[in-house]
Amino acid sequence: MSDPVLSVERLAVWFDTPWGEVPAVRDVSLALQPAEALGIVGESGSGKTVTCRSILGLLPANARVAGRITVEDADVVQLSRRELEGLRGRRIGMIFQNPSSYLDPVMRVGEQIAEGMRHHFDVPRRDARASSIDLLRHVRIADPEGRVDDYPHQLSGGMKQRVMIAGALACRPRILIADEPTTALDVTVQARILELLRALRREERLSLILVSHDLGVIASICERVIVMKDGRVVEEGRTEEVLRRPSHPYTRDLIGANPSLVPAAEPSRPASRSGQLISIEGLSVTFGRRRGRLARALLGEGRPPVQAVRDVTLSVAEGEALGIVGESGSGKTTLGRAITGLAAPSGGRIVLRNDLLTGRRPAIQMVFQDPYASLDPRYAVGRALAEPLRWHRLCPPDQVEARVLELMTAVELPSILRGRRPHELSGGQCQRVAIARALATEPRALVADEITSSLDVTIQKQILNLLRSLRERLDLTIILISHDLGVVRSLCDRVAVMHEGRVVELGGTADIMRAPEDAYTRELIAAVPRIPQLEP
Amino acid sequence: MMAEREIAVTVEVGRPRVRFSRLTVAGAVIVTAWVAVAMLAPLLAPYDPDATDLRAFLQAPGSPGHLLGTDHLGRDVLSRIVYGTRIDLSMGVIGVMAPFLIGVALGVVSGYSGGLVDTVLMRLVDVALAFPFLVLVLAIVAILGPGLTNYYVALAIVAWVPYCRLVRAETLVLKRSEFVESARLLGLSHVAIMRRHILPNAITPAAVFVVTDIVLTILLGSGLSFFGLGAQPPTAEWGRMIAEGQNFLSQGWWISVFPGIALILLTLGFSLLGDGLAKQLRVRA
Predict the structure, then answer these.
(1) Which among A391, A423, A426 has CB closest to B188?
(2) Distance, in angstroms, between B178 CA and closest chain A CA?
(3) pLDDT in tens, A34-50
């Protein structure tokens, strides 16, 4: 084996915070060989991002670092600010999770790509522009001459990530660090970005560190993988080996929790036992309105109205679990919001079974994506759960407390958490509180909108298991909205695939996964990164 | 945001220690000291503030029995400043109450309702902002007649605007948040949502602005008194005292200067406290 291009020895990072010292990375060592792709996998808080950032000296001021990080004979930990600047971009390029927030919105993309070149090599403006165009072509952006003068808002998410990659490669670094580069992107876009990274590695002999929470993404690129947990490396080895024979129990959990590997839901339940609960007929939802004639004459056309949902016809049977799958902008969230009444239809209708309309308490509830945002930050768990009970007088005042505990038990939350506020809970715990609160009014149906997508995979699995058991115990109808086919597959009997506001395919989950009919569905299924060795 | 939460979750040692900057603490100490002076006025003041003593008029500071001297009617300046604290302090605190309540209520309603209600209220705000604040207060007090009560009325009419804008801005964000939507789905009424979920979360910037606003209210109130539109003689009020000493500046500078210093110290305390709180709670004010 040749000399590594990058080595990290006994790295430890901790932060000084008002809560005291918080260790983020404890004793991490790794080495990156030339032209090698190394994956770092772990959950949020496992220290994978902090490890990467310390390689570039990009830590916040309250961070303290011990250990050695060697890049081309220099110890990064000891470098001065000026020396670090020479390292960043020039020796090591980095790309981040959310391309939108890392691109300057008021700077043309060509200038942003060239910024590093001009800084490091003093390239004249005209040459820099030409190189930017070359780089854009290199990252496979169509019409690079036309795009070079665009502003970031004119590009799609995938194109922005390509621009970030182009910028990171501008000074021809030998090492590229990609921190969750595809997490904010749709699966089909993710597949294309991963393909680009693979091609770039081959062409440029780049050494790559790819950080991801998704083993599928890592497996599709990296030869070697490091598994991190609580700031430590718990397992390291060739990707194939680690996936096939994980030695650490945590790695086994991680592999087991990967939704693409969870067995599909059995279509056990007869779809219509007591008929349709919700029928949606020709539903359309439009945002915005075309301006009136006078306003158009005075102010111009303005923004055209956006049709988020177009002519959707769908019915949900009692006790069923229906999945709605689609990429961002496909209208799946709007459809869910229309079902609960949060979005007003502009055409068509939603018919609820009669008994859902009688009674004051709402029969359809919703759980949202961001568990922290869906709870009032000032309400402790107990108070948040008691509120709907008291408001609808669902039980006598002296029994509210008991009912709150019952709800907490139902979502498997320990009762000691009753006095905690959302910021004192983990994401998974918050999501359980949100579910319990939604269940307080004993609804017949629950719309779950991306409820697992901000959670770690192992927590995600727990929440899905909880939904499954609630469904059986309470005879709850569940409408699960997700961009993740794996999540939907593990819970739902039927699935509706949405694309550009329409339902393009509807059918049994297993059937659609096995033999998708629609071209878009096929693309969606093919784009999901898989752990190849474990495919059945 | 996420990173901070992660830290909070990993450690779980309860609330972080809240540390106030030295200047904030200094502000709090100054304000507390003035409140103590106001409450203990009868104990601290050596004389009745309104008692004239024509045998001892225009005594210089430090003369026997009169630490800060006496004015042209022989009233003890120290005693008048001590009693004046009651007027000036309460003027600030009472003056901001009505604007605070009105502004916060209108802000929540305006932001949450949107549509016509919001448009009408915001145009009202625009109108109020288009007039110079000071001129408007002066005009209202001139119409209603001099006196502190009318000053409070004038403030209630014009000074709610910044509170309304601060709270409305917060409300607009909160209205779209998922916890408010879930409260709607649970069937809570709009009024309940505004009162339970919006108001407590939207009020922080307005509450911090109160402290800063007290400074403006005290300065404006004592300014009005200086011009004879606020507290009426013989009330011991600092602005009034400065005005009364004006004619005697060459013989008795202390009559105006000491109440002026008191005014500076009181408003400085509130300013430091207000800035410190704003920084601590990360709100713009």
Answers:
(1) A391
(2) 4
(3) 889 999 998 888 889 89
**Domain total for chain B?**
1
Name the helix (H) or strand (E) containing B215: helix B204-226
In a domain? residue B2: no
Residues of chain A with CATH 3.40.50.300: 6-257, 274-363+447-453+482-536
Whether A368 sits inside 8 A of B182 (CB atoms) is yes
Q: Which of B8, B13, B197 is opposite residue A376, by nearest beta carbon?
A: B197
pLDDT digits (tens, 9 = 90+) for B206-250: 999 999 999 999 999 999 999 989 888 888 899 999 999 988 888
Contact B186 A376 (CB under 8 A): no
Residues on chain A touching B192 (C-beta within 8 angstroms): 391
The radius of gyration of chain A's CA atoms, rounded to the nearest angstrom, is 25
Element (DSSP H or E) covering residue A84: helix A81-87
Q: 3-class DSSP state for residue A315? A: strand
Q: Distance between CA A470 and CA A451 in Å, rounded? A: 15
Q: Are A476 and A445 in contact (CB under 8 A)?
A: yes
Q: What is the DSSP letter of B102?
A: H
ipTM over 0.95: no
Asked whether the beta carbons of residue B8 and residue A423 sit closer than 8 angstroms, the reply is yes
Q: What is the pTM of this model?
A: 0.82
Distance CA A280, CA B232 (A): 72
What is the CATH number assigned to the segment(s) A6-257?
Answer: 3.40.50.300
The upper half-sphere exposure of residue A31, i.e. CA atoms within 13 Å in the direction of its Cβ, equals 8
What top-level class would CATH report for the domain A274-363+447-453+482-536?
alpha beta
Whether A271 shows a pLDDT value over 70: the answer reads no
Query: What is the residue type of A336?
Result: G
Residue A529: pLDDT over 60: yes
CA distances from B152 to A365, B39, B91, B146, B218 (A): 48, 22, 8, 11, 11
Give the pLDDT confidence of B21-56 residue by residue, as tens digits: 889 999 999 999 999 999 999 999 888 988 888 888
Contacts of B181 in chain A (CB under 8 A): 342, 366, 368
Contacts of B207 in chain A (CB under 8 A): none
Helix axes A125-138, A109-121, angle to 10 degrees: 120
Most confident of A2-6, A87-91, A476-480, B46-50: A476-480
